Amino acid sequence: MTKYILKRIIQAAIMLLVISIISFTLMHIAPGDPSTSYISPKMNAKEIQAVKERLGLNDPIHIQYIKWIRKVLKGDLGYSLIDFRPVTEVIKSRIPATVGLMGSSLLISLFISIPLGLYTAKKKGKLIDNIITTISYVGISIPSFWFGILLIYIFAYKFGMLPSVGMRTIGIENSVLDVIKHGILPCTVLSFSSISVYTRYVRSSTIVQLNENYVRTEEAYGFSKYKIMFKYVLKNVLLPIITILGMSLPSIVTGAFVTETVFGWPGMGRLGVDSIFNYDYPVIMATTMLTALLLIVGNLIADILYGIVDPRIGNMR
């Protein structure tokens, strides 16, 4: 397992390097550049060139990339071209909001989907199973931005039950309850799709496990259905859940970008979208690389957990 982990870390480093090159290139060949935020109609060509020189935009792309990667390897992500703060400082101020939203959504998704999937597998073919399966299909298919707007209309605009924008109410910034209240709608949007996906996987895997010989053996020995389900079946069901959890991290991250934008949640997703519209290259690169790192590390953790749940897999690797 140790050798496998080291191999994956090396692969992750190479992958991050490739992602950085592709992202940097795409960003610079896209229309527009950060200098538009500093150029006024009254500036002449010489003044415009001076602005671009100051921002380091006159160098060839490969020179700009080499300068950027050297700074990154030293822990310097540069300065935001919009608010002139260090990029690390900007990101640090946004990470807690995103981690809180994504972490809460993930825990809620697992807490609901695992018992729900086990229950629907046990009730296979019955009315409750058909209802939950239909809802799962809807949850997988529904666009997150549309679902977010729908919840805002119903719970914020129509009934005024929950806030629709931001993370805190002005004047009561130190209230944990207020933060939770603001997070209910975005957390619901972010977790709804995950619950639907995980429930389907748990249900399918559980149905397969219930038809295995070891279940019949345990039933013959007189073990209760509850004990068989949660002591034996659940352990085997966790294997595909760990796999799909690692594979679904990209959708959770991209969902956070969309959800944070819809609800004005001050996290990494909102920062990334704002930086794209403002041509803030240092922040765009930092959020892109951080997101890529999160996805790679998430998949690595999923592989490690897979080996822990089933030691035979770790030994083979």
Average of pLDDT: 80
Q: Give helix and strand order, one letter per element, not per position.
A: HHHHHHHHHHHH
- SS field, number of helical segments: 12
Number of domains: 2
CATH architecture assignment of the largest domain: Orthogonal Bundle
CATH class of the largest domain: Mainly Alpha
Please state the overall shape, judged from the principal axes of the Cα atoms.
globular
Low-pLDDT runs of 5+ residues are none
Which range best describes the helical content: under 10%, 10-25%, 25-40%, 40-55%, 55-70% or over 70%? over 70%
CATH fold name of the largest domain:
MetI-like fold
Q: What about the largest sheet?
A: none
What gyration radius follows from the Cα positions, in whole Å? Answer: 24 Å
Going by CATH, the homologous superfamily of the largest domain would be MetI-like
Note the beta-strand portion: under 5%
